[in-house]
Write a structure and sequence with these properties.
The complex is a heterodimer of chains A (about 110) and B (about 400). By secondary structure, chain A is mostly helical. In chain A, about 70% of the residues lie in helices and about 0% in strands. Chain A is built from eight helices and one strand, in the order H-H-E-H-H-H-H-H-H. In chain A, helix 4 runs antiparallel to helix 5. The longest helix of chain A has 21 residues. Chain A is globular and about 40 Å long. The model of chain A has no long low-confidence stretch (mean pLDDT about 85). Chain B has a three-stranded mixed β-sheet with strand order 1-3-2, with helices on both faces. In chain B, about 65% of the residues lie in helices and about 5% in strands. Chain B is mainly α and about 400 residues long. In chain B, helix 8 runs parallel beside helix 17 and helix 9 crosses helix 15. Chain B is globular, with a radius of gyration of 21 Å. In chain B, strand 2 and strand 3 form a beta hairpin. Classes of the chains: A mainly alpha (about 110), B mainly alpha (about 400). At the A-B interface, strand 1 and helix 3 of A face helix 1, strand 2, helix 13 and helix 16 of B.
Chain lengths: ~110, ~400
């Protein structure tokens, strides 16, 4: 994760700061603010990558193993980095962890 | 020459950035205009013509044949939708007209226009590993379709009211729309209500658009009476493509955040590229209609969203209100700038830009009037706005 601070530091950052960072991806022609755009990007990515994230057994096992947020974020980062380009994968991974993977994947992980 | 970029490479790169803008929730074709069902086989002709144009451009333009960076564009498999093909052809036509030595071309990556099915009012430019993608959203196009459909519906009313005064010109049926709004009636109520609801649906992440095909009218009577409105879709979309292309040509850096200066520069650059497009492509009035229509449609959407949010959460989000006001001001500044640019760049009819600006503002005024009436304030169209409000209230409570 070159160029990104350690996950423990990212995990301590304010959620809006992280979303604002996501809002800087690419150019958008309409004048939305970075926070609003970051929120939209985050929601879109959560939805489009859900199957890949929740279907990953390594991440599921880590998440079930208790309070290991930095490790889960690191594993998510590695997965997201292979699936995406141009987004700060660590930021996205930390947001997913902060918002709770168990809830996000509840449907897939209860079966 | 480096290795040519193939359609498979483009597809693989797009798969990695698509997640940013498209969660696959949107459905349907971008517009009804290029659908086989509405044009009965014209799509086959359309694909052939545009692919032939692209093949010719690749063979004859040094920018393309020296690098192989656009070879993929002649492959039919590179396109998921006829709109992508049309916009890609237009983009390459414009690029082929820029001098080979122009310094901006040196930094230009291969660029692909992509259609994304998200339901948002959002068109973006994303950088892949080697290819950059200009993504036009289904949500934007469908709202544009709702706007054009509303204009035509009001024109159908206003055309019979030409004895009523209007201060507007009628290039885009602005005068007819104003007359219809002044006169009011059930059709007008329904048209404005439909428009507001289309924006609110989009704002809530739901798909929107007209429940009927506009194409038969656009290629029929509207093409004769208002060629500019008939080309409103392609003009606005072409402006988006040229705006994003300018960001790439100028090497703007999105990581430092979008600035008003960058946006104004991209608008101005897009307009100069539209001058080239206008000389090479058969789009009547694109140079004027593209930027003005796009920015006014964005303002209309902005206005409806702002008032809807305020109505839903009247005591929350002061900061959001501030941001939204800034957004509205930015759109207005950009609009004023594109009108001024237009007057300088093209020796068209005097005051055409301002006339189109005023014509396209009439729908914004109609929407504002609905909101002003809700607040008990007088409006330009006050006779009929209470009815629209009453029908909206009964829908919401019913």
């Amino acid at each position: 994760m070159s160029g990104q601070p350690p996950f423990s530091i990212l995990l301590a950052r304010d959620r809006d700061d992280l979303l604002t960072e996501l809002g800087q991806v690419g150019f958008e022609i309409t004048p939305r603010d970075a926070l609003a755009r970051g929120t939209a990007v985050y929601e879109t990515m959560r939805s489009s990558l859900r199957t890949a994230i929740c279907g990953n057994e390594g991440i599921r096992d880590l998440a079930r193993d208790g309070n290991r947020a930095p490790e889960i974020a690191a594993a998510l980062h590695d997965l997201l980095a292979t699936l995406t380009h141009g987004v700060p994968a660590a930021t996205l991974a930390v947001l997913l962890v902060k918002d709770g993977l168990s809830n996000f994947c509840a449907e897939d992980w209860t079966t | 020459m480096s290795s040519p970029i193939t359609a498979d490479i483009v597809a693989a790169e797009f798969a990695k950035v698509r997640h940013i803008v498209d969660d696959g929730r949107g459905t349907g074709k971008p517009l009804d205009g290029l659908d086989l069902d509405t044009l009965k086989g014209a799509e086959v002709w359309f694909r052939h013509k545009h692919l032939t144009d692209i093949e010719r451009l690749i063979k004859t333009t040094p920018l393309f044949f020296k690098s192989g960076a656009f070879d993929w564009a002649a492959d039919p498999d590179a396109y998921n939708d006829p709109l992508e093909l049309a916009m890609q052809r237009d983009l390459m036509v414009v690029l082929s007209e820029i001098s080979e030595d122009h310094p901006d071309l040196q930094r230009l990556p291969p660029v692909a226009v992509k259609w994304v099915t998200n339901p948002y009012f959002s068109s973006v430019c994303l950088r892949g590993e080697t290819v950059s993608f200009i993504c036009i959203s289904n949500g934007f196009a469908r709202f544009l379709q709702a706007v054009v459909g509303t204009v035509i519906r009001l024109h159908d009313v206003g055309v019979h009211l030409r004895w009523l005064n209007s201060s507007l010109s009628n290039y885009l049926f602005g005068a007819d729309v104003e007359r219809a709004l002044k006169r009011g009636g059930e059709t007008v109520d329904q048209a404005i209500t439909f428009l507001i609801d289309a924006a609110v649906r989009l704002m809530d992440g739901q798909s929107t658009g007209l429940p009927y095909a506009l194409t038969p009218r656009l290629v029929g009577d509207i093409k004769v009476t208002s060629p500019m409105l008939a080309h409103a879709y392609s003009s606005s979309e072409l402006f988006i493509v040229m705006h994003e292309l300018t960001h790439l040509l100028r090497g703007h850096n999105h990581r430092r955040g979008r600035t008003l200066a960058d946006e104004l520069a991209a608008d101005r650059g897009a307009q100069s590229l539209l001058v080239i497009a206008g000389s090479q492509l058969d789009y009547d009035g694109t140079f004027y209609v593209g930027p003005i229509m796009f920015l006014q449609v964005a303002r209309l959407y902005d206005e409806i969203c702002r008032m809807t949010r305020l109505a839903r959460h009247p005591y929350e989000g002061e900061l959001d209100d501030e941001r939204e006001l800034e957004s509205g001001i930015e759109l207005k500044l950009r609009l004023e700038a594109v009108v001024k640019n237009a007057e300088k760049m093209v020796p068209g009819p005097r005051g055409l830009g301002m006339a189109l600006l005023e014509e396209t503002a009439v729908l914004i005024a109609a929407v504002q009037a609905v909101h002003l009436t809700a607040a008990g304030l007088p409006t330009h169209f006050e006779d009929q706005m209470p009815r629209i409000l009453a029908s909206r209230r009964s829908e919401q409570h019913g």
